[in-house]
Amino acid sequence: MPRAILSVSDKRGIVDFARGLAELGWEIVSTGGTARMLREAGVPVLEVKEVTGHPEIMGGRVKTLHPAVHAGILARRDLAEDRAALDAHGYVPIDIVAVNLYPFREAVAAGAAVDEAMEEVDIGGPTMLRAAAKNHAHVLAVVDPDDYPRILDALRRGAVDRALRVDLARKVFEHTASYDAAIAAYLAAEQGREAAKGAAAGAAASFPSETTLRLTKVQDLRYGENPDQPAAFYAEAGAPAGSLPTMEQLHGKELSFNNLLDIEAAVSAAAAWSGDDRAACVIIKHTTPCGVALGETAEDAFRRALEADPVSAFGGIVAVSRAVTGAAAEAMASTFLEVIVAPEFEPHALEVLRAKKNLRLIRLPIEPAAPEELDYKRVRGGFVVQHRLHMAFPEDAWRVVTRRHPTDEEWRDLRFAWRAAAAVKSNAIVLAKEERTVGIGAGQMSRVDSSRIAVLKARDQGFDLDGAVLASDAFFPFRDGVDAAAEAGVSAVIQPGGSVRDEEVIAAANEHGIAMVFTGRRVFRH
Length: 526
Known about the structure:
The strands form five sheets. The protein has a six-stranded mixed beta sheet, sandwiched between helices. A six-stranded mixed beta sheet has the order 16-21-20-19-17-18. The chain has a five-stranded parallel beta sheet with strand order 3-2-1-4-5, sandwiched between helices. The protein starts with a strand and ends in an 8-residue tail after the last strand. It is built from 19 helices and 21 strands. 39% of the residues lie in helices and 19% in strands. α12 (298-308) runs parallel beside α14 (326-332) and α18 (480-488) runs parallel beside α19. With 526 residues, the chain is an alpha/beta fold.
């Protein structure tokens, strides 16, 4: 009588599979909850302890790690020495191993503490699967419940060919590799959290000498940045809630490669205000904000962000930190947009926006990414890796370096502009007034050119820059950027400081009566 061991966390289809095997004359060995389910369904089951002659111990931590199990799986049926070893010890060959693993990812996604997460690290399951996949010439290794029907079909036809065995074995090694990668990624994040604590205390962050990046394809994309570039979207193992692989598309045509990059930029930017009681709206073009604003409502925030640069906003991607209301949807409907991302859409908003056939509506929490999460940038032959820019903005290192201190209104706008600058590609200059951007200069080779572009954008929209504030993502290397800001009417500046010409830049601010704040932190995006 052939023997199968069935021990699964994902119990989809397991009863029908076991019943089919039993009807074909197979003996079923099982454990724990799987054995109970099969027994309740009327399928004869042999407990694994009856095979090993040893009870489960340590709360089930040790149950299948026994020679009676692993010799039965690993024995080469065409090798007399292996058959003799089985006979000598009274072991029986195991011809099918259908196992899937403890729900480690699910435990982490539910917020399990480290010790709880480690309890969901499967040991016996991967060991049995790897043994079966190694010996796939003689044993069917089954990790995917969707394979149960084709295995039963092959057994009924007596046609279990090599192609099926190899395919099942491949799936096993892919599955266990992905499982291990998820555990490694979780521990790397935990290590990053500890490193972040250390960094706060002045310790240097450390990176492992080796790392595994395991990706699962979410979907093929029509093309990449250009039509002649094939593209696909992949999720990393253990992608956290709130990340793009977990988003829900509610309407619109398929997302493109560029859409996904812009969505990431929009969500990251809007997340800077995730703890604010007001709504934040960010409009993105080419991964850089063209308008950012706060408002008492989602509608107000959108209208204020749009006014900053309505020309660039055409075909843009919008992220709103609060639910999109019907009023906000009606305001958005008058502008051609590619994507709207929000944590929720009210029913009337969906009704309004779904009238636009191609407009993509994405439901996704607007929350900062964990700062310990690793950020990979592709280079030829490898990656450069860093921790994500932390979208939190503590002010303990901030200091006023000019004779004049900011007014209360200027402090409000400086805080807003500094957060907005962290989302803009460098060289980044943000002009803000009344907690909205009025001009943005980005991606220029010189900082003074970014300043001039920001002023030009503001003037094109008719904004009065008297009393506006300016944020720069990195220090001013020369005073010319401050001179240009003063000429436009800027009254306060926030920047990291740290240039060898800081004194020259501060002197320029004092000459113009500008208040200047040094943050001591750069928020540069290359």
